[in-house]
Please model this.
Amino acid sequence: MIEPAFSLGIEEEYLLVDRDTLALARVPEAMFDACRASLGDTVSPEFLECQIEVGTPVCRDIGEARTHLTHMRSTIAKEAARHNLAPVSAGCHPSADWTHQTHTKKDRYTSLQQELKSVADRMVICGMHVHVGLDDDALRADLINQMAYFLPHLLALSSASPFWKGRDSGLASYRIAIFDNMPRTGLPPRIDSWDGYRRSVDALVNLGVIEDASKIWWDLRPSNAYPTLETRICDAQPRLEHALSLAALNQSLLRMLWRLKRSNQRWRDYDGFLLSENRWRAQRYGVTGGLIDFGRGEIVPMPMLLEEMISLIAEDAAVLGCLAEVDAARDLLQNGTSAERQRAVFDRANGPEDGLKRVVQHLIAEFQHDI
Model:
């Protein structure tokens, strides 16, 4: 069996905030033009005028991804500063009111707003998407079912959106709660074959319900534009190094599943009902509540699950050259996920108003930390 490339692509969405008021601010046209001049097509507008998106080129390994993301983040931070703005990368802005935001004036986004109305208007959220190159359609159809098991683990580690509209939501990832209002979201359904998947997509396309498969927003999907599996479940990460660790885990897990297939083995498929329970636990508790190990039949603490995962994929991470980034995922437990760090900043402040401002300042500083 010929080994796939397992190439890597990372997309990140950022919010722009005013450095004085710490409120969301629209991306100035001059800033976007300067970013485009430096970054080319790797930077683009997003649905809301306060958002900007970057996407790496196809990367052979995590080292290339690091180089591109460092350059992208530093460029956007530099150009934003020229306008007294700063980028933040997190699932949600802690105090923004979605009713005060406006969508980008592009046909694509205007059409989306007209179709989804207030569901789209509430999307003041940012995610991180990881593409892993698998150029065999049948392989993508097979691995998507097995990879779904690990999506709650990635969500728990990436949780970075505890606040919404100035209140602690009680969730580690409120972004997921907002995104789940969209159609065609959540865990991917079981895909029995690539042809079966395409028949389902084509049925909606032929009815005029969707333009193409890019309007399917599952937590994990076959990309419509590239020969990749695209993981979409992670909150955007304030710190670059944490984003790279999550990408490395994602890449290594898919190689591990391919390695099992090469040996005529596979990860057990579990009913979506059961996996959804773990997804909820990750959304609600992040890394603090544990996830259900269905083989053991018990709830297992996240530190134990992460150590088991690292052991499981160590061989694959070594081959892919991302073992250091996989090992560094432990920092999300040792020093806390972004959701935990944001709450710690809030709790140290002098009241709720001061707390929310300090959380935004914290997110601004974390964006700068690794660049």
In short: The radius of gyration is 20 Å. The mean pLDDT is 95. The chain has one domain: 8-366.
